[in-house]
Amino acid sequence: MIKLKRVYEEPSPDDGTRVLVERLWPRGMSKEKAAVDHWCRDIAPSPELRKWYSHDESKWEEFRERYMKEVDRELLERLASLSRTENLTLVFATKDPQRSSAAILLELLQGEGA
Hints:
By secondary structure, the protein is α/β, with parallel strands linked by helices. The protein has one domain. 40% of the residues lie in helices and 14% in strands. It contains five helices and four strands, in the order ββαβαααβα. It has helices spanning 31-34, 47-53, 60-70, 73-85, 101-111; strands spanning 2-6, 17-20, 38-39, 88-92. Strands 1-4-2-3 form a four-stranded parallel beta sheet, with helices on one face. The longest helix has 13 residues, at 73-85.
């Protein structure tokens, strides 16, 4: 099972392996409180794409398309492989889970047969 969770939410035992999928460490969050097992910053959108998007809802569809093209397929496969053997929680910081790069990763991972 793969799920999404904001880094600001309390971790739970059913999260399984928690992977932070942000390029930047979440503001105001200590490593202990984040309770992530891995920080996979290279799977996050490039700095240029992230700055271009800037969470502007009108750019969501184009951001989604661009990110799907640039995402590191090797890292995506590593996450997919992990999710086949245990619960995986993609941890992110943005306020809008539906319009986040983590949501796109979830979509891609589900398409990978995870």
